[in-house]
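Exam revision sheet. Question 4 asks you to relate a sequence to its structure. Input first:
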Amino acid sequence: MRFLEPERETLETFLPGLDDRLAALPLKERERPQGPALTLFKEAGGPGLVVPSEHRGLGASAVQAVRLQRAVASRSPSLAVATTMHHFSVAGLIQAYEATKGLEWMLLEAVADQKLLMASGFAEGRSGQSILASSITATQDGDDIVLNGAKKPCSLSASMDLLTASVTLDTGNGPQLAVALVSASTPGISVHPFWGTAALAGAESDEVRLEDVRVPADMVVRTELGEDGSLDTIQNVGFIWFELMMAASYLGMASALAERVLARDRADVAERARILVELEAAMGAIVGVAAALDGDGPVGQAELLQSLVVRFSVQDTIDRVVPRCLESLGGMSYVSSDETSYLAACAAALKFHPPSRAWSSQALCTAFAGGPLVLG
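Answer key, structure tokens:
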């Protein structure tokens, strides 16, 4: 078995030809804003990856999805980050349909049939605030819900067909968390420059503003927190998908560096083996938690806790492995091309996704002491 072979075989099974087409492009071309990577992803049928087959999708399991995502990230970090937001939004839509048996099935079929991309307007967590706190407000006006606010950064901002957004709904009895599903062509939605770094620029992570955006009330799914502050099933599943897909994506970026180390056969063999062992162990942990999403049992706080443990473990693995990859590749590799420094900069960004380690530390310790896992 070659390094990354299981992941690339999974990618080829579900999205035939995409890996070869990405590999044939220079890295800068894959990573530039409005570049060809997202178009190639759509042409290959990527938007329907995790949509169940009964809703005309490809029906990939969570285990298959995280494997595929690592493979995509090893070719195009920006594409992996952007499509993680899509896949996790689709997974949330599936969970909402399972809970309500509402009209979500129509959107799922549209995503698969029309190859629509879903952007995620969920809170990224601002310093000192809950990751559940939304900057988008929602108020009832007749049969519609009116949305106001902004999401920045918002991946897929330039290419989105649909937007899923966490909102704070004014119910008259106090605020309630909810998820709104909005067509990107709805009047009042606009996109503005925000992303200021070259790293991951192809993910199109700019600002999306909503000004008096009207959506039908049945396109707003209300969610609940438990009395102890714990998340409901829809939120649990969404968070788990997000953490696992992000972990797999950033591990794929680090794996792209390790692949270069392995191909050059320059570093000490024991050091190469240590790098590979760390990366494969991290992937095994991701797959282990993803398997719980594919099971028949309920998904709750235990699985969410495991996903957070894996995410922070992967983050630590990347922080250890990437500098060793750079050292193994040597200074000439670093100065003769910006590819290694680019991949290193991209892989380091996992730590900027929610929840932060500082915010999560107390929640993790409380959960392992037998208390509820409260992220809000």
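Marking note for examiners. The chain has a mean pLDDT of 90.
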